[in-house]
Amino acid sequence: MTTDPVTLYCLSLLPGKDVNVGPYPWKTAIDLGSLGVPWRFKGLTIEEIRTTFEANTAVKGITVPAIQDGEKWVFDSFPLAQLLNSKYGTEERTLFPAGEEFARLFDTWADRDLAAEVIPLLAPWLFKAQQPASAAWLVKEKMGGDQSKMDGLVNATSDPAFIEKQAAAIRAKLITLERTLQANKDEGKGQFIAGNDHPSHADAAVWGWYGTLLAVNHMGIKLGPLTFKHETLPLVGAWADAVQKAAGVDLQLEQ
């Protein structure tokens, strides 16, 4: 086991600020914590990722999360999970207790189905919270350069009714997770998604979106109680806390 903390490059709002606001770096943070590997965030803005970080690493299209492994750079949360599991995983503590395909299933569900409802709240917050150059990159990469799409989301999130409607859509997606956890409970399995006693990459894949939602702030409305911690999703709420505790993740949030 390494004693030197792994540097995990993440998405920050301001240069020199090592606070993550992106869902994907949270996934890797949970994976590292689940394996007992010490780590630390190194924050990069979107502008820094697309300019200096890409130039310094000589890796075209590199994104975060990213970790330097010897002479090479590994990025994207699933390849990182595979790397970390191969280096630090054991038979007793693995990121893939039910196999890689099981974990990939939840990764895909989180990044496609769940994310589709999170992004209308996340994207406009990121746009408003960043410096202009990074905001411009966000519009280019996530909105195809169409500023009107972003403006529409910014205007929509000024309405509490829209935020509640979108939170309800997120809760509707999370019913899938609630049912999975209930099935595990009924069968006497562990409290995590794969039914084991420690978080796996399947848990990290979903928890990453929870960690990011906690940072999002529209008119002071807290999204945690409206989504993952809603009273209609008791097992999801308990699971979110259990993953964070087991992985030892300290939630430093943008204010």
From TrEMBL:
Q: What is this protein called?
A: Glutathione S-transferase UstS-like C-terminal domain-containing protein
Q: Which organism is it from?
A: Cutaneotrichosporon spelunceum
Ranges for domain Glutathione S-transferase UstS-like C-terminal come to: 103-210
According to the lineage, what is the superkingdom?
Answer: Eukaryota
Q: Which InterPro entries match?
A: Glutathione-S-Trfase_C_sf (IPR036282), GST_UstS-like_C (IPR054416), Thioredoxin-like_sf (IPR036249)
